[in-house]
Amino acid sequence: MSATAPPYRPPVKVAPGVHLLQVPIRIPLRYINCYLCEGPNGWTLVDTGFHDDLAEEAWGRGFAALGITPSQVRQILVTHYHPDHIGAAGWLQELTGAPVYLHEKELPVLDLFFGGRMREQMADLKAQFCDEGMPADLVEQILIHHEHQWQRVLPFPTITPLPTGSRFQIGTYDCEVIWTPGHSDGLAVFFAEPEGVLFANDMLLAKITPNVSLWPNCRQDPLEDYLESLTRVEALPVKVALTGHRTVIDNVASRCREIREHHRERLAIVAGACQVEGGATAWEVCQKVFEPERLTIHQVRFAMSETLAHLVYLVNRGKLQKRGNRYLPV
């Protein structure tokens, strides 16, 4: 284990029959929230962490703390394709023999970033970022970083797809599968209405905002998707949202409003960064908004893609225009 790796934290009960296991991750977020949910026929795991030594240790110690044997794990739910959520799913599947579930709309995105189309996707990402003004040497660092991320999603799980609007049993909770694109194309949340429990993963986060990114070969107005998903979730009678990082959220409607306001402010900042003679490239806007020289390469990638998501949203609504690779006021 790296000397700088976050320490193991034992599982904590956060709802009846639901235990939070914060699996350490070697990125600035430091932990991903995974959940062990006890049901009448065994345990459901929700999200997994990267597949590395930190995850293997955390899951082993978490099982021991709760008195769980691998054979008692009956299913593994992955909420979206990001490697900190799906990375250890294949290893856990081999360990437990349990099926791995993922929303049906996320399967093609997983294939793009970590499956059979990954090389094609990385070539398209390189072209996109370079065309939008990012220096080529920085793009190459991003591609190398992605290769390292791919190594942390192996072995690849066998996946059973979950349809939108279906039901999925998480422990004792009978949940509706609700498609909420934006943070990723096929991200889903899982809502148990009688108990008011929302398995929210990265759809909602406390104190920080979920990344909303524009990627090649994916949905082309992800911020519009995300804001619509916020509206959908805000209307649910949620008592507690179990999030993918940081703390749980007790007032979901209030947090939805705060995140919506954040994006209004960010859109104004992005539009303002284009109010210069000749307009600005996406990379120039990204530099003004995020100060990427202060970020890790992991963060630079998402800063650029989130800048693009906001620029596209403004262009689609007639607030900006694009000429070549420059964004200008209308």
Summary?
This protein has 330 residues and is α/β, with parallel strands linked by helices. The chain has helices at residues 53-66, 83-86, 89-96, 107-114, 118-131, 136-151, 222-234, 252-273, 282-290, 297-316, and strands at 12-15, 18-24, 31-39, 42-46, 73-77, 100-103, 159-162, 167-170, 173-179, 188-192, 197-201, 240-243, 320-323, 326-329. Helix 8 (252-273) crosses helix 10 (297-316).
Describe the structure in your own words:
The protein has 330 residues and is an alpha/beta fold. It has one domain (12-329): 4-Layer Sandwich (Metallo-beta-lactamase, Chain A), CATH 3.60.15. 39% of the residues lie in helices and 22% in strands. β1 (12-15) and β2 form a beta hairpin. The longest helix is centred in the C-terminal third of the chain and has 22 residues, at 252-273.
Query: The biggest beta sheet, please?
Result: 7 strands, mixed
The number of helical runs is 10
CATH topology name? Metallo-beta-lactamase, Chain A
Count of individual beta strands: 14
Q: Structural class, please? A: alpha/beta
**Broad shape:** globular
Domains (count): 1
SSE string, helices as H and strands as E: EEEEHEHHEHHHEEEEEHEHHHEE
Averaged pLDDT: 97
Rg, Cα atoms, Å: 20 Å
CATH class: Alpha Beta
Which residues sit in consecutive blocks of at least 5 with pLDDT less than 50?
none
N-C termini distance: 53 Å
Oligomeric category: single chain
Residue share in β-strands:
15-25%
| Main β-sheet, spatial strand arrangement | 1-2-3-4-5-6-7
The helix fraction, in percent, is: 25-40%
Query: CATH superfamily, called what?
Result: Ribonuclease Z/Hydroxyacylglutathione hydrolase-like
Write the CATH architecture name.
Answer: 4-Layer Sandwich
